[in-house]
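Form 7-S
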Amino acid sequence: MGSIIPLLTEVEKQSISERQALPEKYLGLSDAEMDARIASARDTLGRRLVILGHHYQRDEVIKFADYIGDSFKLSRQVANRPEADYVVFCGVHFMAESADVLCAPHQQVILPDLAAGCSMADMADPEQLETCWDELVQMQAMWGPPSDGTGSQWGPPSGGTASQWGPPSGGPGGRQGIVPVTYINSAAAIKSFVGERGGTVCTSSNAAATLKWGFEHGDKILFLPDQHLGRNTAYKMGIPLDEMVVWDPHEMFGGLDPEQVKRARMILWKGHCSVHERFTVAQIAQLRKQHPGIKVIVHPEVPWEVVQAADDSGSTEYIIKTVKDSPPGSIWAVGTEVHLVNRLGNEVAPDRTVLSLDQFGCLCSTMFRVSPNHLLWILEELVEGRVHNRIVVPEEQKHWTRVALDRMLSIQ
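Output:
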């Protein structure tokens, strides 16, 4: 596996000019020169700068990070550096948005390459979610009054629209018909929509606690954008697969009939992570054959059958801790992004062996777009007082996004 990353890096260097345009002077630089100049600019900016590096980021970039972690952990670290004027987020777009929502008014959040997006986040479009919400209201109206016997009717309260209110409270104690929950891997517009309608955000670390909270407040959960995280978490909590349905935003009424939605407890948005969906049961079987006694741990964004075939599953932070705490001599196959797997393997060697479940390397291509060249350009321009690639969440979205994130923080 160690030979794959240098190969990927060399291929990337040849195509760097095909992404966000860089001035010519930032192309063709040696690694040594970039390292020296990045370090110099970083030192010049001092405490005015904080660099955040996601676990999936490449080594050439993450070594300059002040904080390393998953997306939400990194966004919260901004509070530890109130004196910083510039927050350079070496990650992808939705992560920088969360940082902008949580940072102080004087702080500017910067993404080194605006081409660094997230295919999963892009699978949940705000207009599609509006349509989904309206159609769910229509479906609930077909069911008649809720089963609690109160006689309350589904549908928007008087004076409001379905789009504004969504599925309303329909039972005792103000319970909602459907509680929306979005994975943190989603755009600020999605988080804002969810927050305004009584929902919350979750991470892979607290997904189970979030679903428990959701069912305390409503009868069903609309979970987006990653169907696999929703399915795997709910199943682990004891919800059977036949009480889950997949909502296809490209189909009228999600490709479902009202009776299917009525029976379901989990309505899963048809989205996925392009990296984690590549892992398969066949890969697990092959590695077990090659390495008898190997332990397999995967991220819960992988398909359900892969989680069932693995020994364990959990968030990025959980994977790291589990492998590091394992007995000396342990051999692990890890099903998540290749840069994290490779870095983890180097950290625990030689006492433990870590292999990628996908032996060809499972790369997050959008995260990979944040190159040392882009980081150098951003930092040297900051030294000159010029800010590029600032990420700003509109004020009308920022409030409800913050509400959704604060709800998540309150969930134990």
